[in-house]
Amino acid sequence: MFKKILIANRGEIALRVIRTCKEMGIATVAVYSTADRDSLHVRFADEAVCIGPPASKDSYLKISNIIAAAEITNADAIHPGYGFLSENATFSKVCKENGIKFIGASPEMIEAMGDKSSAKQTMKNAGVPCIPGSDGILGSIEEAHKVAKEIKYPIMLKATAGGGGKGMRVVQKAEDLDDAWEAVRREAGAAFGNDGIYMEKFVEEPRHIEIQIAGDQYGKACHLSERDCSIQRRHQKLVEETPSPFMTDELRERMGQAAIKAAEAVRYEGVGTVEFLVDKNRDFYFMEMNTRIQVEHTITEEVINYDLVKEQIKLAAGDPISGRNYYPKMHSIQCRINAEDPFKNFAPCPGKITAYHSPGGHGVRLDTHAYAGYVIPPNYDSMIAKLITVAQTREEAITKMQRALDEYIIEGIKTTIPFHQKLMKDPQFRAGNFTTKFMESFEM
């Protein structure tokens, strides 16, 4: 087992990893930018190293500074959390070259699954259902027209290096394809330095359902059931729950087995997710694999009563998985609390928290780095907390969430708490009738 782990991240996920390390008797190193000197992960780690100014490119994305911090503190492993460098093949490779264990996927695996076009081909070869579309990157607009005619409109153009909702366009008819093609190429080139495009059939009335997986160094994988992440805004998740209200036992079994196939096909090591789109007929299609811990791992932990960060660390240290698949018997919901104003189109709202009170009680969990007096910097993601409830039934979990949201007080800034309060009362949400398009008609 590792003696000291450096956490190459910030905020609530850095604090989350520190907690597990302490429980495992592993020393911790926090890294921080000058904007984060007063953050809780800096206070609660055993050691802390400043790695640069506020801009991410000069601190949390600066590989040389993070490796230097690991070397001067004698850390023998690095946990990247999520976001930043967590799915960066170069970072994984540099860790390996410097004799530091990267608690995540290998460089080869990140490269294979990070490029959506090659990932899709890998999944096809493994027998995992994939959305009909182009065989890899499209070579020309003429080829795009040909493929679109074969798979029939509506279609979606996607940047092969895309993410976070960028580099994507839905095209309803042939006359709109040329303009969409140019728009996606421009956006992808500017955002990712790669203007490669592939095409997929556009899935109607889709649910975004992901399967949590774990794989060891010996080629074995298991699944820990699903999470429904369909409540999204601009492809950014807002609320997640497990189990999905749309799921059946038969569909869960099929999707779980498909996820295991996907993981074992690439000899996946660590914890991660296989993401699927599920249409109104409950046909499911591979979307992507995330080779890291996810923001919403918390709700899976609540229904299986097990620490997934601990599992990550154990798998990275060479422990085998138990091989047992899990099927949920309780229900858990997570609301992402962002420093955004939901009444002003979710505009970011950094600033100082003047008053703070956290909710509590049975079945309520709060993962956060926020506190009274904390100044939320404008340089990073706006998520400041994850509020999680767990109960015997979905109805009870929603009721518990309503109560917890009412107790949660954050003053001095605007947050998405009022949005979640309204969502929990929405009849369609409460009935489980929603798709990834839900937010297009939701009004504050």
Defining traits:
D-amino Acid Aminotransferase, Chain A, domain 1; 444 residues; single chain; 32% helix; 8-stranded antiparallel β-sheet
- CATH fold category name of the largest domain: D-amino Acid Aminotransferase, Chain A, domain 1
Can you tell me the overall shape? globular
N-to-C CA distance = 49 Å
Structural class: alpha+beta
Largest beta sheet: strand ordering? 13-12-9-10-11-14-21-19
What's the CATH architecture name of the largest domain?
A: 2-Layer Sandwich
Helix amount: 25-40%
**Broad CATH class of the largest domain:** Alpha Beta
Number of helices: 14
User: Which superfamily, in CATH terms, is the homologous superfamily of the largest domain?
Assistant: ATP-grasp fold, B domain
Note the beta-strand portion.
25-35%
In total, the number of strands is: 22
Radius of gyration: 21 Å
Task: Report on the biggest sheet.
Answer: 8 strands, antiparallel
Whole-number mean pLDDT: 95
Number of domains: 3
List low-pLDDT spans. Answer: none
